[in-house]
Design a protein that fits this description.
Number of strands: 26
Strand order of the largest sheet: 6-5-4-3-2-1-13-12-11-10-9-8-7
Oligomer: single chain
Number of helices: 11
Strand content: 25-35%
CATH architecture of the largest domain: 4-Layer Sandwich
Helix content: 10-25%
Radius of gyration: 26 Å
Number of domains: 2
Bound molecules: zinc ion
Shape: globular
Structural class: alpha+beta
Largest sheet: 13 strands, antiparallel
CATH superfamily of the largest domain: Ribonuclease Z/Hydroxyacylglutathione hydrolase-like
CATH class of the largest domain: Alpha Beta
Length: 500
């Protein structure tokens, strides 16, 4: 075995000298030499990049940043139609960061505006629709937060500080310009491929690999454009992103300041009531009525025992979660087979585990417009990563849902209704008349804790088409959030009337 790969020196000039000695230009003949070359080759690229952003002293002396931008989000597999083109929503981002204290502020506008503040030991998230606060669902670490990747000077500082662990991964052509690609491991272990303009030293793009629920392993690309000098620091006026080749995000910088006084932004508001966060869910099916179960957690699928066989509704939570639920059903029902799997609508969080359902031989009942898409997930998706699971590729059985579809066996009856609304065009609810249970996704969710938000456009358009069906409902079961009652659903409908 070779000894561990040598660590290249920090200085760019020395690195070039070392690279020349090691013979970068000629073909490497030993592994050790390959390692040496890729580390050494990264150093002059880093040196050029650091100079482009004003030098090492400048970028390491950025102590605070205040940043505002206007964003367009392209709702990839969360649009009304399957798409593309995807629906767009305008939103805003405001960030503030103080390196010395680690204090941090983030405000996101759009449909579900939230604010996050980290102030010393305390961190809160504020839901601005309901005006309640609670601890953030996951800890916010200012040191790894994405502000370091939306402000290229901060990204350059990170790369500079870990220069000895950065490798050169080759060159790319973007807009007819040559870029050197650096492979940079982030604090969380994620590897970033950073494209640095070989001439100007400016960061043009970075990529990560991510597990995409439609195609499997895929590239997420982030681009920086329209650089302008702001307080001596090259700063892009635009950034945009693409996932698996589809545009998902476009942002225009509104304002940015470096090293200003941002201390006032980290004050925790005193007038927003705190609610208890939802307890971590047990991954265990809950029985809603005899032979009717619903999942428990952020993605809640429904299962119904028909006597001889089972019917499932929705495929949220991913392959492993669905396999876990099918395992529980095996025990609960003595191994009854899954015969039909209803899909309420195409959105990613209701279809990403559809491969696990199809693998059982179950027939997928879904709007005809999304059959090819579902078949693609079942047949073509591939993950190489150890942390992502998928069922063996299969050719799924698919049947188109009608406007009203009934599955009936013995005493059990399931009715499925198409209910057009602004959330998704291919949208169905499931109704169990004997049990008076209504199951639906997204349109009438109740949050896990705290007050129910007022009716939005999705709810109002749903309600207009749902009420005429005249269904007798007692229990309202949701794909997300807590269970509710018919009275709560009607109360939510009245909030819209009141708002008008
Ligand atoms: Zn949805």
């Amino acid at each position: 075995m070779e000894s561990p790969s040598p660590r290249p020196p920090r200085s760019g000039l020395a690195a070039i000298a070392l690279a020349t000695v090691a013979g970068v230009i000629s073909a490497p003949s030993a592994n050790a030499q390959v390692f040496l070359d890729v580390y050494a080759r990264a150093q002059p690229v880093i040196t050029n990049m650091v100079e482009a952003y004003g030098g090492a002293d400048t970028i390491t002396a950025i102590n605070t940043v205040h940043f505002k931008e206007n964003n367009t989000i392209f709702q990839r597999y969360q649009s009304r139609r399957l798409g593309p083109p995807f629906d767009t929503v305008p939103t805003t981002t405001e960030l503030a960061y103080d390196k010395a204290t680690g204090n941090f502020y983030a405000a996101f506008g759009g449909q579900f505006p939230v604010r996050q503040i980290v102030n010393g030991e305390e961190s809160i998230q504020i839901d601005l629709t309901r005006m309640v606060s609670f601890p953030p669902p996951a800890p916010i670490d200012p040191n790894t937060h994405f502000i370091h990747r939306v402000v290229p000077a901060l990204l350059a500082a990170r790369i500079y500080q870990r220069a000895q662990n950065v490798t050169w991964a080759g060159q790319s052509r973007i807009n007819d310009r040559t870029h050197d690609v650096l492979s940079v491991a982030w604090d969380n272990g994620q590897v970033y491929m950073v494209h640095v303009d070989s001439e100007t030293g400016l960061i043009r793009r970075y990529d990560i690999l991510f597990p995409d629920f439609v195609v499997g392993d895929a590239l997420a690309e982030s681009y920086f454009e329209d650089y302008k000098d702001i307080e001596g620091i090259p700063t892009p006026q635009r950034r945009w992103q693409r996932m698996a080749g589809q545009k998902t995000f476009d942002a225009k910088l509104v304002e940015i300041s470096y090293n200003g006084d941002v201390s006032g932004m980290f004050e925790l508001p005193a007038d927003v009531p705190a609610i208890d966060p939802a307890p971590p869910p047990e991954q265990k099916l809950r029985e809603l009525a005899e032979g009717v179960w619903i999942g428990n957690g952020p993605y809640q699928n429904l299962y119904v025992d028909m006597g001889e066989y089972l019917v499932s509704v929705d495929a949220g939570g991913g392959t492993a979660a669905i396999e876990g639920e099918l395992g529980q059903l095996d025990e609960l029902t003595g191994g009854k087979p899954l015969k039909y799997s209803v899909i309420t609508h195409h959105h990613s969080d209701h279809t990403n585990g559809v491969d696990a359902l199809a693998a059982t031989g179950s027939t997928l009942l879904a709007d005809a417009s999304i059959h090819n898409y579902l078949a693609g997930i079942v047949r073509d998706r591939h993950f190489a990563g150890a942390n992502t699971t998928h069922a063996a590729p299969a050719e799924p059985r698919l049947t188109a849902l009608k406007e009203k579809q009934v599955i009936e066996d013995g005493d059990r009856r399931i009715e499925i209704y198409r209910v057009p609304n602004a959330h998704a065009e291919d949208y169905y609810v499931v109704y169990l008349p004997a049990e008076k249970i209504l199951y639906g996704a997204d349109v009438f969710n109740f949050p896990p804790t705290g007050p129910i938000p007022p009716a939005n456009e999705n709810f109002v358009t749903f309600w207009q088409n749902f009420v005429p069906l005249g269904l007798q409902v007692e229990t309202v079961a949701n794909a997300h959030g807590r269970l509710g009652t018919w009275d709560e659903l009607e109360a939510r409908a009245r909030t819209q009337v009141a708002a008008n």
